[in-house]
Amino acid sequence: MPTATAGKKKTVxxxxxxxxxxxxxxxxxxxxxxxxxxxxxxxxxALAQMVANGELDAEYIVADSEHSQLSISHGASSSGARVFTxxxxxxxxxxxxxxxxxxxxxxxxxxxxxxxxxxxxxxxxSEHTDALSTRDMGWLMGWSCxxxxxxxxxxxxxxxxxxxxxxxxxxxxxxxFFVSHITSDVELPDAGxxxxxxxxxxxxxxxxxxxxxxxxxxxxxxQGPPLQxxxxxxxxxxxxxxxxxxxxxxxxxxxxxxPWIEEFMTDGADVVFFMQGGHAVTARFAIQHMRDQGLKxxxxxxxxxxxxxTDRVKEVLSKFKVVGVIETNMGLGSVSSGxxxxxEACAALYESDRxxxxxxxxxxxxxxxxxxKEFYWMTEKMMEAQKRGKIEKRTHWVxxxx
Amino acid sequence: xxxKGTHIPERLKIPFAGITPAPSQEKGQDLFPTGxxxxxxxxxxxxxxxxxxxxxxxxxxxxxxxxxxxxKYLDAYALIKEDMPFPSVTGRVCYHPCEQxxxxxxxxxxxxxxxxxxxxxxxxxxxxRDVVKAGPPNGKKVAVVxxxxxxxxxxxxxxxxxxxxxxxxxSPKAGGLNRGGIPDWVLPQQVLDRxxxxxxxxxxxxxxxxxxxKDVTWDDLKKDYDACVLAVGLTDPNSVRAEGETKQGxxxxxxxLRDIGMGTSxxxxxxxxxxxxxxxxxxxxxxxxxxxxxxxxxxxTVEANPQEMxxxxxxxxxxxxxxxxxxxxxxxxxxxxNGRIEALxxxxxxxxxxxxxxxxxxxxxAKAERFAVDNVIIAVGQRASLGWLPxxxxxxxxxxxxxxxxxxxxxxFFAAGDIVQxxxxxxxxxxxxxxxxxxxxxxxxxxxxxxxxxxxxxPVDVIFDLNRMxxxxxxxxxRVQQELLPPESRRKTQDEVIQAFSEEQAVEEAGRCFSCGxxxxxxxxxxxxxxxxxxxxxxxxxLYKILVDYCKGCRVCIEECPTGCLEGVPELDFDTGVVRxxxxxxxxxxxxxxxxxxxxxxxxxxxxxI
Lengths: 402, 610
Prior knowledge:
The complex is a heterodimer of chains A (402) and B (610). Chain A has 402 residues and is of the alpha/beta class. Chain A has 13 helices and 15 strands. The longest helix of chain B has 19 residues, at 430-448. The A-B interface holds A 104-106, 167, 204-205, 212-223, 225-227, 229-233, 236 and B 1-3, 6, 8, 12-23, 29, 31-32, 34, 588, 590-592.
């Protein structure tokens, strides 16, 4: 495979979509399966340009639907290609059939998600429900909060997913518009650094007409459980690999991320927000302001939700009095009658000796921004609960209550 | 960590992520028997191709065409020889009912089967030693009276069955109608001679100049042989019952041809010759007359037009090409002349009804025509000469009385050929006589072995409907035409008119065969099965097998079978509720395997209780 002409390290001002496309280029992907849907489309536009002008030598396949995109990706990955695809909103849903087969056959396909609210009606704002609805399908999954992190996460996800101990597909998510369409400075690495970090993809059993094997044959029911167990094991084994890869990434590129959780101003905090994705950027400003006012508030941002770092979440959240989960997703009729993140947080805390009070905030829904004023309001609610020592109302619809 | 401390038992270990060895044609998808999903089972069931069915001796035509297509000429020759002693003869003279029946005729043009048969027959003629051997001698002696097509065929099959066969022939040369009824320019004498030699090579004794009723009697036959096949043919020509038919210059069709065939002809034809009759013998006579020096030959028929004539279309065409004139709707009512024929008196006439047995309506009220000729050849059929036959075995129409197996009462005498087929509604032709001789030989064998004769009860499924095949596999392709000598040169010679196929032509023509209803190992099912669950140790009819443990009954193979051999048979008979499927959960030793075992036991217990 020819190497992408990525050139020397440089800083460019690009949005999250283009950052994802740049990452695919640096990863020197072999096959790109595209189908348009806002807001992720800009990624495929950027990649199309790169292929067209010779920056990237890849098969760029325009599919007839998201289902086909994922089917193409599945097949291409089976033949040993490094594959990049992506989608948003209902597009993510339309491909649903393929999520389990791809992870079940252990094909490290990478899918970029720029979130979009699900229909109806045709709301094109951002919300995490699209990707989160697939969270238990055996894909590695996490949210970036800005373009730089998106670029870095894409590179790391390939390295993690293609590791022979893992071999799982990855969903690298970013909030639609808030990350995908807001430009910021992104440092693009030196091509040599990427080469050092990300070796070429090698599947242990690629499709090869000279050595025919069956991928995804019918099996006996009793042969299903061992395969599920192996897939679960791969998901668990990936945790060590994720940590290794983040460490190595920091060494080579100089940017260090905690693989699981970002803590912001949590020292001495009584109440914290627990959230994913781009709204954390606003949260940081709000928290900074509130800290200036003397309020003991902080931010815990989940970077990887699959595999879910249960012990780490328990350990971190147990330090505080009140946790406010900002959902940015829909979990209709769920544990909290709000979003699905609440249940993940609470389940991790259940075995803790010092369980904080947990609130669920329905905010950032339907593509609405979470403005600073709303962070102040949510903080107030958390502090009230802290004062009372108990939860009066588990879930709050932010902006719709006094 | 949920997976900590887990382990997978050895028997359930399968390769990474379920990646398994590729399914093979021999074992299918080894892991998961999906046969229990099936409601329709594909079954290979060969139908009878219409050509085989139409052939008077049921040659395995589709079979040898297929072998020719693959270049297996000797195998093809051996196959044809099972039913036909002399393909070199029928390859030239047969009126090929097979080609009329050929399904390809409904599609573009029928296969030129006769030309391929001739190709094989000539190949057989060139062999130093024939592929057919006499059977181990069984010590029994059979006389065959007559060496025409029926006698030849019966003697041939009996020799193959191990009988000591003696052919009694009244003519100086063996061959019967093959020699005496078919002109040289259709069937050269040396071709027939070679086939007669083949009979001698099989250990058959041929006694010529022996006439039954004169040189041997009925009682002699009874005494000297264990059994006898009477294949004496129709030797005496019919008359037109016209006044003056005895005048000099009046000839009869079959004797005319026979004398030329035997080399004993003393006939010198005049310039103007009329042939009476509209059948195939009449056509042969008219064309022979040209070759014997006649300048103007006119064929006079009672039939009103060529379509009514009981003649083969292509022979009629070739005759007209050679310059014979047709005169329709007239009957000869008198031969005029003073001692020697000078002219014919003709009256309008009408022929109505079936072949070989119909009244002719002559309008004697109408004004008679005078038609000047030097000779007339009367070719209006033949009749038997059965003076020697005991009365009890004679029929009203002057043929031999037999039962449905060709046997005369409960004697060991059998009869075959024209002598029994005249008036039976069957057209008289060489291949029908051959088939009759063959069947009678087998029946005779059964009787001598003490077996009872039973009519065949197995129903035959002849495939006539093109919709039962998948015609998308057959591009339209024209028939390979046999070369003919040009009419102007051939009408004066004894050279063969129709030319043989070259090897390439024979292969090309055989390649046009649809192989109607019969597996020809095209491999399509094997290739299209998506499972795959069709196995075949080698590409050959009969070796294809459906792996019913895996076949889901998707019907792809059935739909894509070009020839219509594959059929779908319902697994569940919805009327009776009987499940024919015996393969559910068949192979794996796992959970389903155990279920299968239990199901089988359950079924057996239930069967005992009932």
